[in-house]
Amino acid sequence: MRAASTQARGLSAVLSKNPDDVVITFSKRTPIGRAKKGQFKDTPMDEILHGLFKATLEKTKLDPTKIDDICVGTCHPPSPLYVSRAAALAAGIPHDVPISTVNRLCSSGLMAIRNIAHAIQSGETSIGLAVGAENMTLNPRPTPAISEATDANSEAHDCIQPMGWTSEMVAQTYKVSREKQDHYALISHTRANDAQSRGIFAEEIIPIEIKGKITSADDPIRGGVTIESLSSLKPVFPQWGEGSTTAGNASGIGDGAAICILTTRERAEREGMAVLAKWIGCSVVGVEPKHMGIGPIAAIPKVLAQAGLTKEDVDVFEINEAFASQFAYCVEQLHIPIEKINPNGGAIAVTHPLGMTGVRQVVTGLAELRRTGGKILCTSMCVGSGMGAAGIFVNEASASVASKL
């Protein structure tokens, strides 16, 4: 049996507070830019990261010399480690602070959190930054290439296919109708538009300065989306399956970054850092590449079992909406009330900058728990090539405390 990655088991243990707990003391995201047309379409990833690092240090007053390590989750920029380190240096982080990058596609941001959390648990790191970042305008998904010998294996062939193909395969195999996909898409668009109009996202966004201009609000979210407008859209992948995926019921591509500061509870209390949340653990699974989108169906039960929790113990789920086909199937197979899932909309409405999403979901979910007084957050996403990931976090802050950060 594979080893579990969590130590605390059961609700009381998860909610307990111990000096060696890994905790989050700061969690924010940049505004999100709509790919190709939005506010970051001409902004390279290093500039977005530079702006985020600089704004974070200014807001938290964290002495950058105290940072032990940085991990950036990102997928497609060329030379990601070089540009990430350059951005950190330009923001005033000393050259003796090391940095790494991690790419597990759609879960890369969550893997950055996981890497820093594990380093803290091992005693190798005391304070670390976990970041997720992507500019999909300037760095779109490259077409994977494999040899003819490798491609002869059917699953190897499937794992490099376009994600739109996997959406159609899920819809076709599991009988997820176009009507059902549009229904779930409408929920996402409606919730995100409502959240933006009520200023909810402003609580989780840290404004950043790019080329002398302050950017502070998302630009991809569309108002006025109706079931009629969704049903009128033409399929974007008519060549595959039944052609039920559209621009309205799939995640948009976007640009942005998000960050969490992690340390031990003992260090946070000693340094006078506010504790926002406690890290519990993470799961990663593999699924059939052809049906990549069903990853959360395996990842969520696994991480709950590791923590000794039930679905009922979780107050908010942030499940990435890569496509409405896979999202609808995951929601219904997991038997989780939709009221608990993505209460302020998801990637169908706010877009899915690949490397950013894993941290963005944590930022968004924790902010929602602070507003509502909830405790347990479970995040999850399907992962390109046929995987899934999930994480558990405990909110420990009120909205009034977080508003001061």
Automatic annotation (TrEMBL):
GO molecular function: acetyl-CoA C-acyltransferase activity
Native organism: Piloderma croceum (strain F 1598)
UniProt keyword Acyltransferase present: yes
Active-site residues, record numbering mapped to chain: C106, H352, C382
Catalytic activity of the protein: an acyl-CoA + acetyl-CoA = a 3-oxoacyl-CoA + CoA
BP GO annotations: fatty acid beta-oxidation; phenylacetate catabolic process
The family this protein is said to belong to: Belongs to the thiolase-like superfamily. Thiolase family.
Domain of life: Eukaryota
Pathway(s) of this molecule: Lipid metabolism; fatty acid metabolism
Source lineage: Eukaryota, Fungi, Dikarya, Basidiomycota, Agaricomycotina
Entry GO CC: peroxisome
Annotated Thiolase C-terminal domain residues: 275-393
Residues in Thiolase N-terminal domain copies: 22-265
Record field: transmembrane: none
InterPro entries hit by this protein: Thiolase (IPR002155), Thiolase-like (IPR016039), Thiolase-like_sf_Thiolase (IPR050215), Thiolase_acyl_enz_int_AS (IPR020615), Thiolase_C (IPR020617), Thiolase_N (IPR020616)
Record's protein name: 3-ketoacyl-CoA thiolase
Keyword flag Acyltransferase: yes
Pfam families noted in UniProt: Thiolase_C, Thiolase_N
